[in-house]
Amino acid sequence: MSVNPGAKSEPTARRRHPLLFQQSLSEQVFWPSVTILAVCAALLIWNPVKLTPYRVQVMIVLTGTGLVLIATLVFRMRAYVQCRPEGVRLQLPLYQLTIPYQAIRATRPTELYRMFPPSKERWPQRRYLMRLSGVTVIVLDMDELPASRFLLRLWLPKYMLAPDRPGLVLAVSDWMALSSDLDELEVRSRQP
């Protein structure tokens, strides 16, 4: 089979860019979960006499915490953005969304703290955003959201929806690579 060097190659899916919102949540849950697991395991192994009537409850706490830890790690691995030939795939742990390139009006980088000023957030949300406030994000500006804002709020964190206009906020560690993938595939999708 010969390859024609002048032939135009079909665009392929680019690499997956993990979502930082899900990673941040996973990191916040990790150490408290590990601490609870260690304490429960130590109590079950040590087996003090006063704890004997509560052994079942400690095992339930141990199992529940283990399941929460496993779920957050799986959710972290399943949350990503990927540029594909048909559009931008936004994969969340329990929801998947593909946005065609034609629906994207513009892409722009900005800092997360400019979109969501910490002074306007309540203190628990400020604490959640503290790790990500200086992160550069990619904003996909659109004429309209791919689904209703209510439906998207069920599956997306508040900070993934642009506050000022219809659009999605994508926080990834390598925003320049994502921007490059978006630009390349967006240009290819508009060519006849």
Short description:
The chain has 192 residues and is an alpha+beta fold. The protein contains 6 helices and 7 strands.
Label this structure with key terms.
192 residues, alpha+beta, 3-stranded antiparallel sheet, elongated, 7 strands
Task: Explain what this protein looks like in three dimensions.
The chain has 192 residues and is α+β, with helices and mostly antiparallel strands. It has six helices and seven strands; from the N terminus they run E-H-H-E-E-E-E-H-H-E-H-E-H. The strands form two sheets. A four-stranded antiparallel beta sheet has the order 1-2-3-4. Strands 5-6-7 form a three-stranded antiparallel beta sheet. A hairpin with a 4-residue loop joins strand 3 and strand 4. Helix 1 runs antiparallel to helix 2 (55-78). It starts with 15 loop residues before the first strand and ends with a helix. Mean pLDDT is 88; it is low at 1-7.
What helical percentage do the residues reach?
40-55%
Spans where pLDDT lies below 50 across 5 or more residues? 1-7
Overall pLDDT score: 88
Report the structural category. Answer: alpha+beta
Q: What strand line-up does the widest sheet have?
A: 1-2-3-4
Order of helices and strands: EHHEEEEHHEHEH
Query: Helix count?
Result: 6
Oligomer: single chain
Strands, count: 7
Number of domains: 2
What is the approximate shape?
Answer: elongated
Integer-rounded radius of gyration: 22 Å
Span between termini: 27 Å
Estimate the strand proportion. Answer: 15-25%
Instruction: State the major sheet.
Output: 4 strands, antiparallel
